[in-house]
Amino acid sequence: MVADLPKIGLSMFEYSNTPSAQSGTQRSGHWENPYISQPLRARSEAQPAENQRNKMIRNISICLAFACLTVAPAFGQQDPQMTQWFNDLAAFNIGAAGEDDLTHVNAWYRNQWMGVNGAPVTTMINAHTNVDFIPGALGLQLYQDEIGQESNTMVKLGYAYHLPTLANGAHVGVGLNVSLFSKSFDANWIAVDGVANDPAIPDGNGSGTSTDVDFGVFMRKGNEYYAGLSMTHLAEVQLQSLNIVPTRHYYFMGGYNYPLSGDDLLLRSNVLAKTDLNATAVDVNVNVLWQDLVWGGLTWRPGDAVAPSAGIQYSMSKKEGITSSEQVFKLGASFDVTTSELSAYTPGTAEVFVSYAFKFITTPVENKYANPRFL
User: Fold this and answer.
1) Phi-psi region for residue 24, left (φ > 0), alpha (ψ -120 to 50) or beta?
2) Which secondary structure element, helix H or strand E, spans residue 127, and what is its range?
3) So what CATH class is 10-188+203-371?
4) Are 115 and 347 in contact, with CB atoms under 8 Å apart?
5) Which of 56, 78, 215, 303 has the fewest CB atoms inside 10 Å of its own CB, making it the most exposed?
6) Which pLDDT tens digit goes with each residue over 245-293?
7) Run of H or E residues at 368
8) Closest to 78 (Cα-Cα) out of 149, 148, 10, 153
9) pTM to 2 decimals?
C-alpha cells in the first residue's frame, strides 16, 4: 500500500544495500504506481506536460476496459494487496460473505519487498458468517499496514443479502461495508532536495480518520464458476486533520473450475482486476487441487511479479449423539518473485494465509409421550 501524501521527490523507503547507499550518497524517490513494484529512485527530470496528458488519456482508456497488462502512473493506494486473495473472496467483495453455512475466520500476513528498509508489512483478518436473526450474512474485517513511517488501520463491518436462487442454479449476494480508516505518520522524511524546499511536505507528525462505505455484487454457480464486482471508498471522505482523500477502487473478479480427473484433480483459474482509474493491475492465478487436500499453482501479475504458491486444506466432520460438527483448516504460502526493476534490491515478497471454518450444531432432544391405553 502506498501513501497518498502530496510529496515530490520523497520516499518513505531507505535502501541500505544499493550502490548509492554504499557510497554514502542516499538515493530515494517516489514511485508512482500503487500496485506495481517500481524502483525507488529520484527522478532527475520532470516529464513534459504533453507526455503526461497523453499517458493519462491512454491509461484511463485501458483501465475502463479492465484489460491493462502494463504499468500505469497513479497517485496512491489505500487497499491491501494479497497474492492469495482467491482463498477468501469475501475479503475483497462483501457480496461473497456467507456463501455456505460455515463461519469463516481467515488471516493473511504479507512481508513485501523483503530486504528493503521500510517496505510494506500487512496483516489482515477477515471473518464472515450467516446469521439467523436476519436474512443474509455479516462480515468483519481488520487490517494493519506499516510502510516506512506511515501506519494505516482499517476496520470494516459488512452485511450481505442473498437473493433467491437464479433459474440456472446460481446464487447472488449483494453486500455493503461500513469502514473506519485511520492513517498516521511521523516526520522522518527522506527527501532528495531537503524537506524545507517543498512546502507540500508536512514538517510534523500527523494523523487522521475517516468513515466510508464499500459495495459488492457476487455470483457463484456451485463449484463451476464465479464472478464479482466491488467498489471500496465509495464516498471518498477526506481524512480528518489530513489533506488526504482515499481514492475509490474498483475490483472485478472471476474464476472457473475444470475437473481434470473426476473429483480427484481440479484445475482452478482465478482473475482479479483492480483499478482506481489511474492505474490498473491484474492478477492471473491458476492452481490445481488434489483430492480436496493439497493445492499448488502460480500467480502472474504483469510488470510486477510471478508468484508460486501452495497449500493444504483438511476437512473433518463428526457426529456424536445430539451434537454434530464440521471443520475446515487451510494453510497457504506464496512468494512473489519480483520481475520489475526493483528486483535489483529485493528477492521478492513472502505471504502466509491461515483459515479456519466451522459449524457446530446441537439437535434438541425431542420428548415423546404415549398412553399405554392407546398402544
Assistant:
1) left
2) strand 121-130
3) mainly beta
4) yes
5) 56
6) 889 999 999 999 999 977 799 999 999 999 999 999 999 999 999 999 9
7) none
8) 153
9) 0.75
Q: 71 and 83 in contact (C-beta within 8 Å)?
A: no
Among candidate residues 106, 102, 100, the one with its CA nearest the CA of residue 87? 106
Place of cell 482467491: 86
Q: Which 3 state secondary structure label does DSSP give 109?
A: strand
pLDDT at 108: 98
Whole-angstrom Cα Rg for the chain: 24
**pLDDT 10s digits, 57-82:** 444 333 333 333 333 333 344 688 99
Nearest 5°: CA angle at 141, between 209 and 270? Answer: 120
Q: Are 171 and 207 in contact (CB under 8 A)?
A: no
Q: Are strands 10-11 and 190-191 parallel, antiparallel or unpaired?
A: antiparallel
Distance CA 166, CA 40 (A): 49
Q: Are 232 and 248 in contact (CB under 8 A)?
A: yes
Three-state DSSP at 195 gives helix
CA–CA separation, 305 and 179 (whole Å): 30
CA distances from 266 to 4, 36, 259, 300 (A): 41, 30, 5, 20
**Alpha carbon 146 to chain centroid, angstroms:** 15
For the chain, the domains span 10-188+203-371
Query: What is the structure's pLDDT at 374?
Result: 60
